[in-house]
User: Fold this.
Amino acid sequence: MTFTSDDHRYMARALVVAEGARYLSMPNPGVGCVLVRDGQVIGEGHTQMAGGPHAEVMAMRNAAALGYSVSGATAYVTLEPCSHHGRTPPCALGLIEAGVARVVAAMEDPFPEVAGRGLALLREAGIQTEVGLLAAGARASLRGFLSRVERGRPWLRLKIAASLDGRVALASGESQWITGPAARADVQRLRARSCAMITGSGTVMHDDPLLTVREVDGEAWGERRQPLRVVLDSRAQMPPTARMFSAPGKTLVVVADAPESHVSRLLSCGAEVVSLPDAHGRIDLGALLDTLGERGINEATVESGARLNGAWLQSGLVDEIMLYQAPVLLGNDAQGLADFSIARLADKLAPRVSDIRQVGQDIRYTLQLGSWT
Assistant:
């Protein structure tokens, strides 16, 4: 199948448009759609909040608002148009009814209720369909959704703020703030795109974090969607006075071997508590990710201390590390970024560097682990 340079240009634009759904579409995939007729873009749109219109509908509405008919147009979409009745009607049928002549999809939708059926509906209606254009870019854009559908668990990101000498906190535990304002603003964007924020009870008891989205790009977040806060607390020891209990959004506490009185105390604070012990009486990290996948969590971000960082890294479940390195030195007594050990150099963790950029005075490394993409 051969795509033209114009096809590439319009699909690249659809991927840019899809970024507009980054903070609001979950658990649905954040899809972009661009409508083109006679070499002119006549409409574009991205997925709205769950239960709201999908990208194709938004693009058709945009075209109508501009006074264009989409009859005979080509639709460039970053994911196969849906074919099933969910909270909204099938987008494939909407495109058929609008008289679109051609649909180019970056990739098929692996969701079982779609899985090629949308493209089949379009073909049966006489619409020319093509798939596979800029598929790698679409997979990167949709990786959280794809991870949940294909692996049954969210894309897991480990966020670490460290000094030049690889320290995340002083010996006392003090860690606010190692990085600068620009890096902290960038972390707010990470939280906004995450469906869940994961931390440990030690971090809660020492730092009392909110783990909320407060501001993105200078705009107050207000009452918009907050990520689910997930606290790993084997013995349910976190205090009922923790600030996150009174913050917007929900808190899930994961325990392993917790006294009923401790669990009851957390329930009275409004938390949800789930027990996921492994064979050793610790929290089963793999079972936690499976549970989050069942809850529709596409992307999860860990913000924790060295001990939990090390446990996640040793589990082999981390997909990505976002490392913010500040131009400061904290010395030998400060805490390292991850508490784990290896016996042989051959056993070292060797993430792949996918991006390095300066964020204010700090450097942000984006590192990939594992083979799933």
About this structure: The chain has a mean pLDDT of 92. Residues 306 and 338 are 4 Å apart (CA to CA).
